């Protein structure tokens, strides 16, 4: 009965925008099915900022944010490598790598990535620390599909258990422009910031597949 109620609750969540303030998605099991598809409010992107928070004990490679297009499986991908302290950032199948990040397990991390088609430059921010800008190319991102919990090896599919995310994820926002450094810092510090105009955690429309729970976010007591 409880499993049925959970299924009904999660199905209802997809029907209209939900305010997930103070909530998190929990991915408790390694599978090639458990995922959350986020409904994107635009079909073409010439600039992107994505911010999210994640908590995991995974030491293997796993996806943090997977956006695919009909022509690019890695349209905008934030991917934690198995090598300690290494994150790959992909735009339209072009990849750059960031190392020496002090990616500790079993703690919340804030990750933001930005990219602009005019310059082709991308940048990763890790726990509020800006890292070097790197060239990723300037082609428009079109007809995006965004999935949390899995890495798309085809458009909306071809998930691999060994690239899946387990743990908790929260505060996922996406903008169709580059956020200023001050706005990114405000996000990291949980201060007032402009919510995403493409994906907004406070008004999120999504579809859940498999065992994914919506829970109150665990906060550190002082």
SSE layout:
Elements: H1 2-13, E1 23-27, E2 35-38, E3 44-45, E4 47-55, E5 62-69, E6 72-80, E7 87-91, E8 94-98, E9 109-116, E10 121-126, E11 129-130, E12 134-135, E13 141-142, E14 145-148, E15 167-175, H2 181-188, E16 206-209, E17 213-216
Antiparallel strand pairs: 1-15, 1-17, 2-14, 2-16, 3-13, 4-9, 4-15, 5-6, 5-14, 6-7, 7-8, 9-10, 10-11, 10-12
End-to-end Cα distance: 37 Å
Order of helices and strands: HEEEEEEEEEEEEEEEHEE
Q: Which spans of ≥5 residues are poorly predicted at pLDDT below 50? A: 1-12
Protein structure class: mainly beta
CATH topology: Jelly Rolls
Rg on CA atoms, Å: 16 Å
The number of E-state strands comes to: 17
Mean pLDDT across every amino acid position: 92
Tell me the overall shape.
globular
Largest sheet, strands/sense/barrel: 8 strands, antiparallel
Helix content: under 10%
- Relative strand content: 35-45%
**Number of structural domains:** 1
Name of the level-1 CATH class:
Mainly Beta
Overall CATH architecture = Sandwich
What is the count of DSSP helices, taking H or I runs of 4+ residues? 2
What's this, in brief?
The chain has helices spanning 2-13, 181-188, and strands at residues 23-27, 35-38, 44-45, 47-55, 62-69, 72-80, 87-91, 94-98, 109-116, 121-126, 129-130, 134-135, 141-142, 145-148, 167-175, 206-209, 213-216. With 222 residues, the chain is mostly beta strands.
């Amino acid at each position: 009965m409880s499993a049925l109620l959970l299924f009904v609750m999660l199905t209802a969540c997809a029907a209209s925008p939900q305010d997930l303030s103070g909530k998190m998605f929990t991915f408790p099991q390694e599978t090639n099915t458990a995922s959350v598809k986020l409904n994107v409010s635009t079909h073409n992107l010439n600039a992107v900022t994505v911010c999210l928070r994640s908590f995991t004990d995974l030491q293997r490679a796993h996806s943090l944010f997977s956006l695919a297009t009909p022509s690019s499986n890695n349209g905008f991908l934030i991917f934690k490598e198995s090598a300690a302290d290494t994150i790959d950032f992909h735009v339209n199948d072009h990849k750059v790598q960031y190392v020496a990040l002090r990616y500790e397990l079993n703690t919340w991390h804030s990750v933001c990535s930005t990219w602009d088609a005019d310059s082709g430059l991308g940048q990763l921010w890790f726990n509020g620390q800006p890292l070097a800008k790197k060239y990723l190319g300037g082609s428009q991102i079109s007809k995006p599909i965004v999935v949390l919990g899995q890495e798309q090896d085809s458009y909306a599919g071809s998930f691999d258990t060994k690239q899946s995310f387990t743990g908790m994820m929260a505060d996922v926002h996406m903008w169709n422009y580059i956020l200023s450094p001050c706005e990114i810092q405000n996000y990291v510090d949980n201060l007032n910031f402009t919510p995403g105009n493409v994906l907004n955690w406070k008004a999120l429309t999504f579809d859940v597949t498999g065992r994914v729970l919506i829970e109150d976010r665990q906060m550190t007591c002082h």
